[in-house]
Specification:
The protein has 9 helices and 7 strands. The protein is α/β, with parallel strands linked by helices. Helix 5 packs parallel to helix 6. The chain is globular, with a radius of gyration of 17 Å.
């Protein structure tokens, strides 16, 4: 059994929506294994930086809430490469405030980027994958989408919606050759979580809630994503894989 071949993505085309801390690791992980990656982010400079570091990648500036722009990006990628094998949605925002102080603007932004943007990429890419009869979609959610936690109502609600979306698309496309799964990391010390970790005491509080005793490293979910994107995951769809140090088990 040639296990190395499971993670060989030579000549495959991968779209990564969101190139922050985790997204950047995903871009690098696929590029190092032979894929050509389209690294998309609302911050064009960040997307280009990730693409240049990866080498076999192209950076693209995109607001994932803009349906026409998303569809154009996917159409251009498909026209250029003739295929899209994998889509990974990591783009997200995180607002940490008491529920009574959460503004409409912050709620709408959270739902727009975390939920609508994920859906738009899934729909545009999925349309082409379904027609081709093959594809892997991996959506990033969070264990926060399955539990109650103070100060992050919009984030938790948006991540719960991503889990539901993942299951719904998995069922709808189950007989097309397209699988749809999700990965749920735990608290990760990235730019996204800066509002929570601006106080060092909060880092200890989060770590104490994780059975393995430390925050999730930014690259902890790269291997799960590669597996879910591989041919070996054919019979796995509609699943949320937790890479959170056991936090979801508590």
């Amino acid at each position: 059994m040639n296990v190395d071949a499971w993670f060989d993505f030579s000549d495959q085309v991968v779209v990564v929506n969101g190139c922050g801390g985790i997204g950047r690791e995903i871009v690098l992980g696929f590029a190092q294994r032979g894929a050509h990656v389209i690294a998309a982010d609302i911050d064009g400079a960040r997307a280009e930086e990730a693409a240049q570091e990866a080498g076999s990648a192209t950076g693209a500036q995109i607001d994932n809430r803009d349906g026409a722009a998303v569809d154009q990006l996917i159409a251009d990628a498909f026209e250029r490469h003739g295929r899209i094998d994998v889509l990974v949605n990591t783009a997200a925002v995180y607002v940490r405030v008491p529920a009574l102080e959460l503004t409409e603007a912050d709620f709408d932004r959270s739902m727009g980027i975390n939920v609508k943007g994920t859906w738009l990429f899934c729909q545009s890419t999925g349309r082409r994958m379904v027609e081709a009869g093959n594809g892997r979609i991996i959506n990033y959610t969070s264990n926060a989408g399955t539990r109650g936690s103070a100060l992050q109502l919009a984030y938790n609600a948006s991540k719960a919606a991503v889990i539901s979306m993942t299951k719904t698309l998995a069922v709808e496309w189950a007989r097309t050759g397209v699988t749809v799964n999700a990965v749920a990391p735990g608290p990760t010390d990235t730019e996204l979580m800066a509002p929570a970790f601006s106080d060092p005491a909060n880092i200890s509080k989060f770590a104490d809630r994780i059975p393995q005793g430390e925050l999730t490293p930014t690259d902890a979910s790269v291997a799960p994503v590669l597996f879910l994107a591989s041919s070996q995951s054919r019979w796995i769809t509609g699943h949320t894989l937790f890479a959170d140090g056991g936090m979801s088990a508590t």
